[in-house]
Amino acid sequence: MAFLRRRQQQPEPEEITITLDGLTSAQVMFEAAVQRHGELHPETIKAMQLVVNHLTHDRQRLRDAAELQHEVARLSYLTYGPDHPELLTALFRAGDLQCGVGNLELAEQMLRDALDGQERTLGRDHPDTLATAQALGVALTGLGRPAEAQALHEDVAERRARALGTDHRDTLISRGNAADALRSAGRFAEAEVLYREVLRDTERAFGTDSRKAAISRNNLAATVFQRGDAVEAAKLFREVLAAVANQPEQRDFAASVRNNLAAVLHELGEYPEAAALLRQAVTDRENAVGPDHPETIQSVDNLARVLAECGDRAEAARLARHCLAHYETRLPASHPRIEDVRNFLAELS
């Protein structure tokens, strides 16, 4: 008996689906907006801002994000005019990004322009105004003007405490920034008192094992070290590193803690461990944010100092020259860090 075989149906061709990542999709949308509306149009500016937002998710592309955000601010001015909320927000974002990549003088200019406009149109207590004032304070601290920064941070902290409460995340950040400014001004005892208060309130609000508490403890340790107690500082830094070293999502922060602990160990004369910590910190930061990021350069600078103590003066000089070239292009000519590295190189020669 013959078996009848049903003719097999040929499979339908599958649809081809092109999947774009978020950044590529945003770039396509931006190019389409330019074609449809031209550059000076709100929809085009929104599309460009979306590209910036995606770039900021990749820390190695923060410089690209800062450059493009600068363009967003320029087009916003031409499209909306002065004091428009969209322009002021774009200026704040541009200044904040420029600060993050180390272009502090440009950051100050942008943030002051944004702050002036927000104070006129929104008032001094508006959350956007306070966020801009806080970012300006960070830039001023980086520029070596801690007294101005401290006044800003204390004012922001007081206004946020009235509106949000003393334990609110934003208030705690402002109080911590005020302590940063005190530390930068060399007022270590006052800074330590404030850091301890912030750590206590942060642990109460978010828990002793939270990232926020770890950051507060790290900042306290840095101040204790600068006050002159290297042994206590090393103990605090080791506590922080033990808490975050094995957490992949904390890799960037762990690199910062390694950098700080190494600086303390250098002071204590424990050079081999300090060098090992710094090499790991440099590697982690290069992978996370790139070789020219200010955080990476800071670790390279510290590594140069430790290698000099270990007797490798040639490598120390090479690294120091690399840092000096970075500082000379990113910092004001009068910044003390430039003179410090030049003096270090003179000692090595």
**What series of H and E elements makes up the topology?**
HHHHHHHHHHHHHHHH
Kindly provide the name of the CATH class of the largest domain: Mainly Alpha
Report strand %. Answer: under 5%
The CATH topology assignment of the largest domain is: Serine Threonine Protein Phosphatase 5, Tetratricopeptide repeat
Helical percent range? over 70%
Distance between the termini: 100 Å
Counting helices, strands and paired strands, the structural category is: mainly alpha
Instruction: State the low-pLDDT regions, or none.
Output: 1-8
The number of distinct structural domains comes to 3
What does this structure look like?
The chain is an all-alpha fold and 349 residues long. The chain has 3 domains: 24-124, Alpha Horseshoe (Serine Threonine Protein Phosphatase 5, Tetratricopeptide repeat); 144-244, Serine Threonine Protein Phosphatase 5, Tetratricopeptide repeat (Alpha Horseshoe), CATH 1.25.40; 257-349, Tetratricopeptide repeat domain (Serine Threonine Protein Phosphatase 5, Tetratricopeptide repeat, Alpha Horseshoe). The chain contains 16 helices and no strands. The chain has helices at 22-37, 42-55, 62-80, 85-100, 104-121, 127-142, 146-164, 169-184, 188-206, 211-227, 230-244, 251-267, 271-289, 294-310, 313-330, 336-348. The longest helix is centred in the first third of the chain and has 19 residues, at 62-80. It is globular. The N and C termini lie far apart (100 Å). 45% of the residues are buried. Mean pLDDT is 90; it is low at 1-8.
